[in-house]
Automatic annotation (TrEMBL):
Residues 321-486 form the Transketolase-like pyrimidine-binding domain. Belongs to the transketolase family. DXPS subfamily. Thiamine diphosphate binds at residues 79, 120-122, 152-153, 180, 290, 372. InterPro entries: Dxylulose-5-P_synthase, THDP-binding, TPP-bd_CS, Transketo_C/PFOR_II, Transketolase-like_Pyr-bd, Transketolase_BS, Transketolase_C, Transketolase_CS. This is 1-deoxy-D-xylulose-5-phosphate synthase. SUPFAM superfamilies: Thiamin diphosphate-binding fold (THDP-binding), TK C-terminal domain-like. It comes from Yoonia rosea. It catalyses: D-glyceraldehyde 3-phosphate + pyruvate + H(+) = 1-deoxy-D-xylulose 5-phosphate + CO2. Keywords: Isoprene biosynthesis, Magnesium, Metal-binding, Thiamine biosynthesis, Thiamine pyrophosphate, Transferase. Pathway: Metabolic intermediate biosynthesis; 1-deoxy-D-xylulose 5-phosphate biosynthesis; 1-deoxy-D-xylulose 5-phosphate from D-glyceraldehyde 3-phosphate and pyruvate: step 1/1. NCBIfam families: dxs, PRK05444.2-2.
Length: 640
């Protein structure tokens, strides 16, 4: 049984209005209660613990100072929003975080008025906040906009596009840079170095605005707020101030984001005095206040359920290595064979498994930070130079780099290998992270070869095939989580481009699977067999080029052909239908059905539950096959 922490200050808060009635000491005490509540709740649910713990004081202070929800508090990514949820009327459901039917692990408009803008992909907050300020200035019923963005997320291009725009617009807008010197992995890049430099930079001349902030500090607090007093520092960029000032922002900080004696006066002063865009640089510690998080390598970025006392996380006992690990290991094997192989990740070295290659070939693995667009074009450049880049990006984040895939890779027919992890539904992260669309958006592109792994051995074959394929771009997708547990060879084999395979022979219906739903299709075949219906199962392997001969063979020899994929409409099934329709083969002799994700976003839950919601279980597949073939259920007690 979990012992709930004592939280007297939090118990007296039903929303931010209650916080605004508290004195500063009580507000600081409230933050301690919120931290205890977040630790206790996440110990039961798992989730993004470290990022949330790092912003406890900041979140409480913002709600204490600003008039939320009229003022719009926009968290970048939104993975750090648990303290915010606790104090904005969702404490009673905080232990349902990321669970089926429960609170989302991110900000979500449908959930609360206090979530004015949903997120989960990074670096969108400043753009959205600027949108709200324009709304405010054009008479919409909205107050100030405050974007809270991390040091990892501010490295992405979108954040600079937004600051470029906001700086020249000159509207009153608050950007709070939550600088904990961590992304998921240690942060990379020149911007990260620049921000670190700001801590150490000599205090510059106080600007006019800074004088105003300083004057606004209550006398006794001035001694404590060394950083707060020097509200504008002078890291020279060749001009008169910080990079942010050069972009048109007033720069405030850096201040200690865990010290209410700095946070509250600075936020109050900023709120009182700002006339244009202000960037407040707040230094925090990821995992703050919970030793197991503070001391772990990723600062407790993403944890499973844990024991609060010891910090020990509930370990799932995998039956098989994860697809990610199989990919990472196979990539390292290929890299060993071919020195031209290089790898690119956008801030996800361990998430994508390229850290396995990195451990052996450090100088051939490039972490570009949260910069999918750059990562893709960077890979294109390396391919143009003659290298063999593997660009390993989650399906959902590859969406960010799509124009680069089209314009820089496919159009120039450059041999970039796209390793698309987290394809299909991913579970607790929910619809923002679902890898739903890549089959359609990749297969639409001329020159692109598109593969999906039916199991982890197939994935090894695809890594090797991609390494060997140098005629143009090639992509292969695979899901989150563990494989099916088959024995792995030392090295994958090269598979013929555009050739699928028959997995099992039957004569009534054919199930043509593209990707990792293969095991579910095999289960469907068992259910069909129980009805006396025999199914051929084929693993398409390729959505592009299609194995047209295989598809025609299936069509000729069965009453029904069902395509199955872990992706949205407009993907593999659509490719098959285009092909058959244009050859006049959809003539009704064999009924064709496509099984895809439905045309709606699927709420977070365990992956199996999400696929059940999507209508993609073995029972659904078997029922679709029987209905399409016009076969009635014969045996009672067998569900299809
Ligand atoms: C476009 C995009 N790429 C990658 C990610 C994966 N991701 C989520 S949080 C994160 C690190 C964010 O670092 P930071 O903004 O500093 O926040 P912190 O976790 O340190 O509080 C990454 C890479 C994402 N959410 N969106
Ligand atoms: C917030 C975010 O985008 C990542 O932390 C993501 O939740 C990681 O997902 P995986 O656990 O699938 O690597
Ligand atoms: Mg960070």
């Amino acid at each position: 049984m979990t012992i709930r922490p004592q939280t007297p200050f939090l118990d007296s808060v039903s929303g931010p209005a209650d916080i605004r009635r508290m004195n500063d000491t009580a507000i600081a005490n409230l933050a301690d209660d919120v931290r205890a509540e977040v630790i206790s709740a996440v110990s039961e649910t798992g989730g993004h613990l470290g990022s949330s713990l790092g912003v406890v004081e900041l979140t409480v202070a913002i709600h204490a100072v600003f008039d939320t929800p009229r003022d719009k508090l926009i968290f970048d990514v939104g993975h750090q929003c648990y303290p915010h949820k606790v104090i904005t009327g969702r404490r009673d459901r905080i232990r349902t975080l990321r669970q089926e039917g429960g609170l989302s692990g991110f900000t979500k408009r449908a959930e609360s008025d206090y979530d004015p803008f949903g997120a989960a992909h990074s670096s969108t907050s400043i753009s959205a906040a600027l949108g709200f300020t324009v709304g405010r200035d054009m008479g919409m019923p909205t107050g100030d906009a405050i974007a809270v963005i991390g040091d990892g997320s501010i490295s992405a291009g979108m954040a600079y596009e937004a600051m470029n725009n906001a700086g020249s617009e000159g509207r009153r807008l608050f950007v709070i840079l939550n600088d904990n010197e961590m992304s998921i992995a240690p942060p990379v890049g020149a911007m990260s170095k620049y921000l670190s430099g700001l801590y150490a930079s000599p205090v510059g001349e106080l600007h006019k605005m800074a004088e105003g902030f300083e004057a606004a500090l209550p006398g006794p607090l001035r001694d404590h707020a060394r950083r707060a007093r020097h509200l504008v520092t002078g890291m020279q960029t060749g001009g008169s101030g910080t990079l942010f000032e050069e972009l048109g922002f007033s720069y405030v900080g850096p201040i200690d984001g865990h010290d209410m004696r700095q946070l509250l006066p600075v936020l109050r002063a900023a709120r009182t005095r700002a006339t244009g865009p202000v960037l407040i640089h707040v230094c925090t510690k990821k995992g703050k206040g919970y030793a197991p998080a503070e001391t772990s390598a990723d600062r407790g970025h993403g944890v499973s359920k844990f024991d609060v006392e010891s910090g020990a996380q509930a370990k799932s006992r995998p039956n098989a290595p994860s697809y990610t690990k199989v990919f990472g290991t196979a990539l390292a094997t290929e890299a060993q064979m071919d020195p031209a192989i290089v790898a690119v990740t956008a801030a996800m070295p361990s998430g994508t498994g390229v850290d396995i290659m990195g451990a052996r070939f450090k100088n051939r693995v490039f972490d570009v930070g949260i910069a999918e667009q750059h990562g893709v074009t960077f890979a294109a450049g390396m391919a143009a130079s003659g290298l063999k880049p593997f660009c390993a990006i989650y399906s959902t984040f590859l969406q960010r780099g799509y124009d680069q895939v089209v314009h820089d890779v496919a159009l120039q027919n450059l041999p970039v290998r796209f390793a698309i992890d987290r394809a299909g539904l991913v579970g607790a992260d929910g619809p923002t992270h679902a890898g739903a669309f890549d089959i359609g958006f990749m297969a639409a592109l001329p020159n692109m070869v598109v593969m999906a792994a039916g199991d982890e051995v197939e994935l090894m074959h695809m890594v090797r095939t991609a390494a060997a394929y140098d005629e143009g771009p090639i992509a292969f997708r695979y899901p989150r989580g563990e494989g099916v547990g088959i024995e792995l060879p030392e090295r994958g084999e090269i598979i013929e481009i555009g050739k699928g395979r028959i997995v099992q022979e039957g004569s009534d219906v054919a199930i043509l699977c593209f990707g990792a739903h293969l095991a579910e299709c095999q289960k469907a075949a068992e259910k069909l067999a129980a009805q006396g219906v025999t199914a051929t199962i084929a693993d398409a392997r390729f959505a592009k080029p299609l194995d047209r001969a295989l598809i025609r063979q299936l069509l000729r020899n069965h009453k029904a052909l069902i395509t199955v994929e872990q992706g949205a409409k407009g993907g593999f099934g659509a490719m098959v239908l285009h092909d058959l329709a244009n050859d006049g083969l959809l003539d009704g002799r064999c009924q064709v059905r496509t099984m895809t994700l439905p045309d709606r976003y699927i709420d977070h839950a365990a992956p199996d539950a999400m696929y059940a919601d999507a209508g993609l279980t073995a029972v659904d597949i078997a029922a679709t096959a029987m209905q399409a073939a016009g076969i009635e259920v014969k045996r009672q007690g067998v569900t299809v």
